[in-house]
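input
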Amino acid sequence: MLAAAEALKVDEEAIIYALFMANRIGMAIDNLVPMSGSVAGCQAECGGGSGMAAGALVELAGGDVEAVGEATAIALKSILGLVCDPISGLVEVPCQQRNAILAVNAMVSADMALVGIKSVIPVDKVVKALSQIGKVLPKNLKGNALGGLAITGTEEEIK
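output
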């Protein structure tokens, strides 16, 4: 956010408004599906953060509310189904890499929305899909280190 603010040469007030926008997006998502990897997978936790950042970046760049929704929808659609599979119970692996990649997802989603690209699926329906997917994700893929990357054998080496 700060790097974008510097590149856009915006003032502190614009940054504050962008952070408020991120907060509103997060509250809207969390109202339907808890933004927790143990509840709905990393699609909700890391992905929710990416959607929040995408919308905030649009706000920071002076985009309108419609573009904020488009950016959020585009970012969220890109991560649907992302499981939560911390290795040895450590969120550092693979979450640090996922969050870095999803920061880029947020930036690209914001850029797409700012140039007028629309999400085929409206943001509210994308969040509903995220919720539905979170409900059907297997328990082993929801933050308990019982599936996915968490059971490749590497976790034993890390322990």
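quick obs: Helices lie at 2-8, 12-32, 37-40, 42-60, 65-77, 92-114, 123-136, 154-158.
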